[in-house]
Amino acid sequence: MTRPPPPSFVRLLNMLNAIRQMSPFDTLNGEEGLLLDALIVKWHERDDITVSEVMADARFGSQPTAYRRIIALRDKGLVCLRTDSKDKRVKFVEPTQLARDYMASISEGISVLGQSARTV
């Protein structure tokens, strides 16, 4: 018999599902969600993530497929593309305020879960 997951883990999953059911996250397909998650990790590590860098990452499919996913995130208001001021051929993928709010919601939810786990 397997052991049920700890209550804090279940609360975390419930919180993530609740956030993902809000617009526009409810319209993300699985691949777009994975790309957004990967971008969030990359933005945490450093600011400038190029479109070419994302397209070269095999996790996101072929280069045209990866580009279509970036554009889908842009069309849903989660990322914007900024042209490099020194080289107009280079574009950076940046989070919009909506993506920043999403990241803040997850961080806040994790903090609340951590606090409730310490009081148990």
In total, the number of domains comes to: 1
How much helix, percentage-wise, in residues?
55-70%
One letter per element, helices H and strands E, the order comes to HHEHHEEH
Structural class: mainly alpha
Note the main sheet. 3 strands, antiparallel
CATH architectural name: Orthogonal Bundle
In what range is the share of β-strand residues? 5-15%
* Cα-to-Cα separation, first versus last residue: 25 Å
Q: What is the CATH homology-level superfamily?
A: Winged helix-like DNA-binding domain superfamily/Winged helix DNA-binding domain
CATH topology: the name is Arc Repressor Mutant, subunit A
Count of β-strands: 3
Report on the structure:
- The chain is mainly α and 120 residues long.
- It has one domain (7-115): Winged helix-like DNA-binding domain superfamily/Winged helix DNA-binding domain (Arc Repressor Mutant, subunit A, Orthogonal Bundle), CATH 1.10.10.10.
- Helices cover 60% and strands 10% of the residues.
- It has a 3-stranded antiparallel sheet with strand order 1-3-2.
- α2 (30-45) packs across α4 (63-75).
- The longest helix is centred in the C-terminal third of the chain and has 23 residues, at 97-119.
- The relative contact order is 0.15.
Task: Output the keywords.
5 helices; 3 strands; 3-stranded antiparallel sheet; elongated; 120 residues; mainly alpha; Arc Repressor Mutant, subunit A
Question: Quick recap of the structure?
Answer:
The chain is mostly helical and 120 residues long. The protein is 60% helix and 10% strand.
